[in-house]
Write a structure and sequence with these properties.
Distance between the termini: 58 Å
Number of helices: 9
Strand content: under 5%
Structural class: mainly alpha
Number of strands: 0
Order of helices and strands: HHHHHHHHH
Amino acid sequence: PRRVVGGLSGATGKLTPNRPTSLVKQEKTEVEYNLLDTGMPPPAKAVMPISPQEKLVQVRNWAVKHGLQLDEPCLKALARVPFYRAKDLIDDVVLGGKDRCGVRNPSRYLMAGCQKIVTGLGVEQGIAMELAVSLGVLINNEALDELASIPRRQSHAIIRELAENAQTRVDPLEYIRAEVLKCRAQMEARPWPPSG
């Protein structure tokens, strides 16, 4: 027999023992993590991603829980960053800010913190933006966030409707919000998993 460097001789069966599963730390999904922190009851099944409005409510609840009354632009800025980062920023304010000496204006401090966190568009937002630009529709990041919370087919149909109908372009954000709410309501009314 030829010797191979690093080869095992006479090893049969299991080479390594199994790790006990009770010691393995289970990772929580972002939705479970968010629901535990806000005190909201967990849904039966999380079918769709969290909408921007739901995230804003979560951020507001977290701030109120820590005794902070934040203004609307600050809440919107916090809703744009990942929830764990928003929590960290709010906890930082509660602890007294950078120098731990207290924060005079929590909303302004948090807005500055959100601006330092560099977040680009996600994949779904980028795809929706490309379609909107190719059709000549101008929409902002807030509208892109709304469109990213529904399936791609429905979001593209909404963008095409914006391109074709001049009445919808008067206030595109309100139109997108209304259509996204309709779409989410329809998705939640359907049985899951789809029968077919």
